[in-house]
C-alpha cells in the first residue's frame, strides 16, 4: 500500500500521524528540526524524516512513487514552505490537502477598559512599534513568544534587544539562533508548552513584562491563554496576524479524504461535553463549586454579556445564549476537535430551572446531538436563584410565598390583574422584574387596587458590591429611578383567603335599572363554562358586568371582554370594575356581533357567555366560530323566542355536547309571622362546545 506524506509543523500534524497509525495506514512525516522529531511519538507504520527541504528535494520525494497524497500540516506562519509543498504536489500529480489550524480566538478586553491589543501584519512592523514605544519613554520588558526564526528582527536595535525575554523551544536549533543574536542566558526561556494563563502570568510578573508579543496562533497555539494573561496583568498584547488567507481543511475533512483514497476507515473519536449551568447572580460567589469547575475546564463559554463580564474560558468566550448562535459554533468545534474532547459551558442567570431558557436550549441541543455521529454529553447543573438570594438577604423564608415573573411580559396591562390578585390573597408575593420601570408600575398597581397598606422589599444588584435592600411603600416605589437588576417582595399583612367559587351577593353590585343575572344563576352558568387558568372570555350582553366580574375574580390570568351596547349599562360596568379593582376586564362598546367583526386582538377567545343576543344569536355564533373553531359557549335566556333558537342548535354540525337545563330559584319572603317562597323567572342555560372542525 502506498503511504501518506505529511509535512508536519503543528500539533495537528502529530495528531494526524497518530490517527493514521491507529487505522494501520503507513505515512512518512517530514519535520524541519531535531526538536520536531523528538516530540513525534514512536508510532506503528509512521516514519519520521528530519531536515529542511528545498523545492527540488520535495518534488523528488513526491515523485518517488511511494505516496498517494500529500498533507500540508505546517505552521500557519510558514507561508513560503506551504507554497513550496503545494507547488511540488501539483507538479508531481499528487492530491494536496492543507490541514489548516483554526487561528480564530476570542478578543480579550482590557480589564480597565483601555486599549491593550495591538495588531501587526508582520514582525518588522511589530518591532518598529516597540522601538517607538521605547523612544517615547516606555518602561518594562518584552516577552517574545513568536519562536526563534525571527529573533534577528527584534535584536537589530540594541535598546529593544536588551529588554527582550524570548520563550523558545528547548531544541538545539532554537538555542543556536539565540546564541547567534548574543542574547544573555537570563533572556532565554527554553521551554515546551502548552502554557496556561497562570504560567503566562507568572512569566509576566517574574520578568517585569509590559509587552507580550505573540502570533495569531489559534487554539492549539495557546493564543487565548496568552491574551487572557495579558488582559489580567494590564499589559499590552502585540499580535502578529495570521498571514495565511487561503482556505484549508479541518482535521475531520482531511481524514475523510484520506479514507476515500485508501479505502480504510480512520476512526476519529471526537467528543463533546456540554454543561448548561445556572450561574447564580453573576458574581463568582454565587456560583456552585461544580459550575466553577466546569467553567475552568471549558474550551468555550457561552452566555449573556452580563454573565461573561470578567470571565475567560480556556479558549473561547462568546456572548451567545440562543440555539441558532451556539449550535454552529459547537459544530465547528467538533469538526476541529482532532480526536479530543471539547468542553462547552452555557451560562444562565440564577438557577437553570427557574424562569430560565435552559430547558428550551436543552431540547434543541438534544435534537442536534441526534444529527451528529460524535459522542456528545449534555447535562444541566443548578444554580442559586434570584429568589433564594433575595430571601436570604431579607432574612425571610420563601416556601410560602407566591412567586410571579413579570420580566419581559410587556406593559402592565398584561400582568397587573395577576399581580393584584396574588398580593390580595398572599402574605408574601415575590416578583421577578425587568428593571426600575417595573418597580414604579408595581407601586401604581398596588395603589389602584386598594393595596396601599402593603410594604414592598426591593432588592437591587444582588450579589454585586452595590447590593442593597430597601423597604418601601407603594407610593415610594413610584419614585424609584436608579437603573439596574431588581427583584421585590410585596408583604400584605391583611391578605384575604381566595374564594374558589363565585361569592359576590347581588346587593354588592352597582345595579341601577339595568337587568342583572342573579347570584344563583351566575354560579351555575360560570360552572358550565369550564374555565381554565388562562381563559379568554367574551361576556356578550354584559349588563351590569356581574358575570364578567365573577369570572375575572377567579384568576388574574383570565382575560375578560365585557361587550355591551347600552350607554347606561356601559357606565355601570365601568363603575363595578373600579369598585372591585379588576384590571383584567376590558369593555367593548357596541352591539354583537357587529362590534366583534372588527375587533382584532392577539389572543383568540376560548370561552363566551351570552346573556343577551337581541335576536341575533345565530349571527353571534357564526362570528365566534370564525374566531375560534374550538371554544366553549354558555347561553342564558328567558324569552320564548330565544328558547326556540336554542332548540335549533341541535341541527348545527359545528356544535357538540349540547346541554340545556332549566334553573328556577325561589326566595323566602316574610309575610307576617310566615315565610313564603316567591319564585323568580325560570332561566334556561344552554352549554356546548364547538367541534374544532372547519366547516
Helix and strand arrangement:
Layout: E1 3-8, H1 11-22, E2 27-31, H2 34-38, E3 46-50, H3 55-62, E4 67-73, H4 79-92, E5 96-98, E6 117-120, H5 123-135, E7 141-144, H6 151-155, H7 158-161, E8 164-168, H8 172-180, E9 188-190, H9 197-206, E10 209-215, H10 223-233, E11 236-240, H11 251-262, E12 271-278, H12 289-297, E13 300-302, H13 305-308, E14 316-318, H14 323-335, E15 341-348, H15 358-371, E16 375-381, H16 386-394, E17 402-405, H17 412-425, E18 428-432, H18 436-448, E19 455-460, E20 468-472, H19 474-477, E21 486-491, H20 519-529, E22 536-540, H21 546-552, E23 559-564, H22 567-580, E24 585-589, H23 594-597, E25 607-610, H24 617-627, E26 632-637, H25 640-647, E27 655-663, E28 666-671, E29 674-679, E30 683-690
Parallel strand pairs: 1-2, 1-4, 2-3, 4-5, 6-11, 7-8, 7-10, 8-9, 10-11, 12-15, 12-16, 13-14, 13-15, 17-18, 22-23, 22-25, 23-24, 25-26
Antiparallel strand pairs: 18-21, 19-20, 19-21, 26-30, 27-30, 28-29
Commentary on this structure:
With 695 residues, the chain is an alpha/beta fold. It has five domains: 3-101, Rossmann fold (3-Layer(aba) Sandwich); 117-240, 3-Layer(aba) Sandwich (Rossmann fold); 269-384, 3-Layer(aba) Sandwich (Cobalt-precorrin-4 Transmethylase, domain 1), CATH 3.40.1010.10; 387-491, Methyltransferase, Cobalt-precorrin-4 Transmethylase, Domain 2 (2-Layer Sandwich); 506-690, Rossmann fold (3-Layer(aba) Sandwich), CATH 3.40.50.150. It is built from 25 helices and 30 strands. The strands form six sheets. The protein has a seven-stranded mixed sheet with strand order 24-23-22-25-26-30-27, with helices on both faces. The protein has a six-stranded parallel sheet with strand order 6-11-10-7-8-9, sandwiched between helices. It has a five-stranded parallel sheet with strand order 3-2-1-4-5, sandwiched between helices. β2, α2 and β3 (46-50) form a beta-alpha-beta unit.
